[in-house]
Design a protein that fits this description.
alpha+beta; Cytidine Deaminase, domain 2; five-stranded mixed beta sheet; 14% strand; elongated; disordered N terminus
Length: 239
């Protein structure tokens, strides 16, 4: 009787392991043995959150983020403020997710550095789509090129609303002169998903072209980027 009583006491004193015990290590081993592609979308988010949340089960939070933003891409392109509105997302977790797009941007940018961007057009378009294709408001960027059409600088000039961004041609040309740029490529996004140039886009592009031309700077193209595609002013015969 005493033995049974003692056994019962011993077992009740042993804390049961949580259902997620060992889950993190299993995910790590799967990445090492099968590669990152073996993870589902929410598991990738889990993995990214491990460093921000050293303890506990982050699977519910990962799934909540997918539900809130619709996809892995939606989560990783969400603004920090929007991420923070999801219960359980503190500063460390927001930072852990926000760093991923920046790393991807720098990796993509490496493909177009030190070579003529005209010769690596598909990589250029992919890069532009990555940095602004999913942005919820309009962004206007200028790629400044040297005489060999290599990228000198990629700078965001303005950020606007969902359908409008103020652009100042003289400021763009002034910056080109400061950088000793010989050519420009304009890039902006349409959050609506429609890559068709508006009448305002066309008028603004012509004004920039004329202003740049007077200073001996060529406008190669103006790209409109959306989540799923793009349009080129040059291909459309608008330059």
């Amino acid at each position: 009787m005493d033995e049974l009583a003692g056994r019962g006491t011993s077992e009740s004193a042993s804390p049961s392991k949580p259902h997620f015990h060992g889950h993190r290590e299993r995910l790590r081993q799967r990445v090492l043995e099968q590669g990152p592609s073996s993870l589902s979308d929410y598991e990738i988010i889990e993995f990214l959150l491990f460093g921000a949340k050293p303890r506990g089960d982050v699977k519910p939070l990962a799934k909540a983020l997918i539900a809130q933003f619709g996809s892995l891409a939606g989560v990783l392109s969400a603004a920090p403020w929007d991420l923070k509105q999801v219960p359980g997302m503190g500063d460390a977790s927001v930072a852990a997710l926000a760093i991923v797009p920046e790393a991807a941007t720098r990796l993509s940018r490496a493909d177009i550095l030190d070579q003529p961007v005209i010769d690596s057009w598909s990589q250029l378009v992919g890069y532009c789509r990555m940095i602004m294709g999913r942005a919820p408001v309009e962004h206007f960027r200028v790629l400044f090129l040297d005489r060999k059409n290599r990228l000198i600088a990629d700078e965001e000039q303005q950020r606007g609303t969902v359908d409008h961004t103020p652009v100042y041609p003289r400021e763009i040309v002034k910056r080109a002169l400061e950088l000793s740029a010989s050519a420009l490529i304009l890039v902006h996004n349409h959050p609506s998903g429609d890559a068709t140039p508006s009448s305002g886009d066309i008028a603004m592009t012509r004004e920039i072209k004329e202003t740049a031309s007077r200073m001996g700077i060529e406008l190669h193209d103006h790209l409109i980027i959306t989540r799923a595609g793009e349009s080129s002013f040059r291909s459309l015969g608008l330059l």
